[in-house]
Design goal:
24% strand, 254 residues
Amino acid sequence: MNASIGFESSGHPVLALEDLTVSFDGFKAVDSLNLYVQRNEVHVVIGPNGAGKTTVLDLICGKTRATSGSIRFNNRELTKMHEHEIVQAGVGRKFQTPSIYENLSVFENLEMSFPRGRKVFGALIFKRSADVVQRVETVARDIFLEQHLYMQADLLSHGQKQWLEIGMLLMQEPELLMLDEPVAGMSVSEREQTAELLTRISRGRSVLVIEHDMDFVKSIADKVTVLHQGKILAEGSMASVQADPKVIEVYLGH
């Protein structure tokens, strides 16, 4: 696992959320949030249901608009950008349910995610060139699917579908990868492989994860942020967060 990097010691964070607030009909789902994510860091956000975890990811990727506050990624303000511009800036997002092309092969799913293939015009003139094939094979190896490149995606196990979707994001070489409950429904061995995968792909990029499985969090997290009612309840190493009386009362005790 990467050594934890303190905010002060590592210069500018890759991602900085400052005074971030979003209100839905007067209810503050996220309330004056300050959150910082470093390069080479696996940063996990935990908290009870309704704490605002998924909303934070929605705000970062532009799916939900902030009521006030700032989201800076590599010093670019994301709150004024469209979703596709945020993707192009280097932010990749995986939702809870895998959204893959079930009737295509693993190879084709990855190939379609290559940046040149994504635009309609790009797809029309898209050629399966050597650099695409090489990238697909590299990513397939990273996500444990090199033996299944020509298998139709709907035949994969649930865990393998989750890996394929992570692979589709890796094809775009994002600098920030956001994953919402990536090990939900996985077997124990798939969870272990996913922990190894996330630790590996955080080298040279940042990974922001929402997760409920505390054993999994312990195995991947450089830093843990606990959200409660849209605010930060505690932040630090998994050990310090688990020992925090407020966290035990609100979340871990249930």
